[in-house]
Structures are given as structure tokens and as C-alpha cells.
Design brief:
single chain; 416 residues; six-stranded mixed beta barrel; 15 helices; elongated
Length: 416
Amino acid sequence: MTKIARFHWRPPFEWIAALRFLREGRTQSLLIIVGVGVGVAVIVFMSALLSGLQANLIKRTLSSQAHIVLLPPEEVARPQSGNLTTAQPTALNLQKQGQRLRSIDQWQPLRERLAAWPEVAAVSPVAAGPAFAVRGDATKAVTLLGIEPELYNRVVSLADRLIAGQLRVGAGEVVIGSELARDLGAELGDKLRVTTAGGAGETLTVTGIFDLGNKGVNARNVYVGLRTGQTLLDLVGGVSSMDLALHDLDIAERLAARIAAETGLIADSWIRTNAQFVTALTSQRVSSNVIRFFIGLSVAFGIASVLVVSVIQRSKEIGILRAMGATQAQMLRIFLLQGGIVGFLGSLLGSALAGGFLMLWQMLARNPDGTPMFVIGVEPGLVMIAAGGASVVGILAAMLPARRAARLDPVVAIRG
């Protein structure tokens, strides 16, 4: 009978030696794997926590404002000579002109054009200006905003922030903030009179009360239909601004500059409007990156120190392997593999620890109403980067001990 040859795969010599060295010094190996795991857990936990915190802060900051706001260009006063009949030069008296409420020229074609841009998620025309809200003896200065609810809700999720009523701003209807409702003593169905500085006024019925999480906005903003706002602010057929929502918040400043250059309008991005807030976020990212760097550095020194001790303890074994024909390259790979294995196993342990810490955080960090303080999610890419980074750090940390092991003289190493 014909015998069937069987193929038995055996791992390379370097893998066998590296795993055996790790098993023989299992206490040291376990300690450094735990150390790497703790470092990776801290990095992953901090990264996820920071990302969730910043996303929550940005969401709260932008809950009541657009990503980009387009405004008409400022009116500039032209200098005039004091005496045009004489050749003598005279001093010019130039004063900055007061800005009046104006409409954006040709705003309808501009809206259609911007809505077609792939970076823009929504464009909402707004007729906004100062006004007074009067109910009984109470009078409050407010900002009157005439909107198209369907479009505006895609920029600012006003409908989702209603605490009473509906986002209904038809003729004779108004939606106000919770603070303004409290100050005026108004509830759903009550009437209040809105009067502008030009003397125009209208009595409106409260159809909705919102809470955007900003006390100033809740006390100031009053929403009516676009046509009502245009009439009260003497902007018939016009709009005072256009609010844009973007798919990517980070390109707001760059896109605002592009729009301003192409249209001649003033384009204020949320980044410029909240400059101090953005600076604080940037500082937070930088400090977090510095902390992660030093954690990674401490992990690298921990791996290197353990492998240095391993080389010293196994000098005779290394000498015997070299005497039996192991090359310097093989010895180098043995210790590099140890560093990589330790880093990889530590990254798996650290990712599991980070997941547990994040679950515990979600359970303990709660708002007074019992809801999570903010949503934290661990992206698979973050875990993969942490695992790969820890493995690379392990290999780099093992470089010096590996070179030392490869350069050992077999005779000297065997003699001890």
C-alpha cells in the first residue's frame, strides 16, 4: 500500500525560543503584560472619554446656533472733502456709519446654489432683528427670528427641544423660550404682543415653548414665520441672514472663507464665533496627547527593562544557542518577538480593561434625571490603533536588549 505523506507544520525557531523564554520567566512576563495592559487601558479610556466629552460640549454649544451664518456686507461711509471749490487740501472727517437692518441681495438663488454644495447639509433663510415682547405689564427685549420651520429645524433641532406645544409658526403664531415664558407669565395658548423698533407690532398666540439648554437664548429668542418676521422688521421679501448646517464641523472656517470670497458676504463660522471655546478644546487635546505620550514612554521603558534583565539572566542559554549555530539575526528576532508579543497581549488586556472602565463610567456618571451624562463609544479603529501601537512600542523597546543579546560572544556567555 502507498503511504500518504503527512505535513506537520512547525513554527520557526525564533518563535519557539521567544515563547519558551517568556514561559520560563512567566512572573516577569505577566507583570509587564499587566503593566502594558494598564497603560493601554488608560490611553483607550482617556481617548474615548475625551472624544465623548468634546462631542457633547460641541453638541451643546451648537444646539442654538448654525455652523455658518451669512450676513450682508457692512456699509462703509465714503469720505467727503470739506471744500471742493478750492485747491487747498482740507482735513477729512470720517465717522464709522451705523449699521442698519438690511437684506441679502438675491438670497433665493444663493440659497439654491449653496444647498447644492456637497459640504452643506442645509440652508435656512432667517429674518432676524431686535423687538419687544409685551404681555400685560411685562416687557422684555427679545430677538425676533422669522424662519421656515422645515429648513430651520435641519440647522437647529428646535422641534426636538420643545418642552410644550409644537413648532408651529403660521400666521399669528409664535414659539418662545422657557425663560421668556416664565418672565412674561405666558403659557400655551396665551397671547403676547411683539413690537419692533420701527413701530410695527402684532399680537401672536404662543404655540410652543422650547429649551435649548442656554438660559440667554431661552430668554431672548422668539420664533415666528418667515413672512411675519419680514413684515414686522420691514424686510418684505428679504432676509437678514442665512444659516448653514455642515456635514463636517471641522471645515466650517475654511468653507466660510470660501463663501465670503465668492459672494462678498460676511461669513461667520461657529469656530470664529466660539473662539475661546475652540481654544480650550485644542488645549485639552494637546494636554491629552502629552499624557498619552508619557504613558507610552513608561510602557516602553518597562518592556525594555524586563527584556534587559531577561538577556542578563539567560546569557548562558543565549551562548549555547549561538554555539549550536543560531545566528545574530535569529537572536535579534527572538527578543524582538518577545517585545512584540508582550505588547500585543498587553494591548488586548488593556482594551478589555478600558471597555470595563467605560461601562462602569456609563453606569455611574448620570445626570440628576438619571440619563447618561454623555454618550461614550469605543471605535474599533481606536482599539486596533492601540493594539498596533503597543506591539510597535514593544518591538522598539526590545531593540536595545535584542542587539545586546545578538552581540554576545558564545564562549564568554557560556563561561558566565
